[in-house]
Amino acid sequence: MELLEINIDGSLNMIGYAIATIAPALGVAWIFSSVINGTARQPEARGAMMSTAFIGFAVVEALAIIAIALAFVL
User: What are the Cα distances from residue 70, in Å, to 3, 8, 23, 24, 40?
Assistant: First the structure.
């Protein structure tokens, strides 16, 4: 019986980065889906919701930027 040998070429850090970007992607999706729902319920509050959404977007995307920085450093 022969053993199956698997070779992984490339950097395992990039695989870790790919996994680490799942949370920010879900966070951005949830933020903007909430804004869409809120705008559908109360259209006149769109401006306030969008400014809050962009602040949340920046905070969530900071996680992805930190993850890619760590992937290149390690």
Answer: 35, 20, 16, 15, 39
Distance of alpha carbon 11 from alpha carbon 74, whole angstroms: 10
Question: In angstroms, rounded to a whole number, what is the distance separating the alpha carbons of residues 49 and 43?
Answer: 10
CA distance 22 to 7: 25
Burial class from Cβ neighbours inside 10 Å (0-12, 13-18, 19+) for residue 3 reads exposed
In the chain the domains, ranked by start, together with CATH numbers, are: 12-73 (1.20.20.10)
Query: pLDDT tens across 34-66, in order?
Result: 999 999 999 999 999 999 999 999 999 998 898
Highest-scoring range by mean pLDDT, 2-11, 31-40, 62-71? 31-40
Stated length of the chain: 74
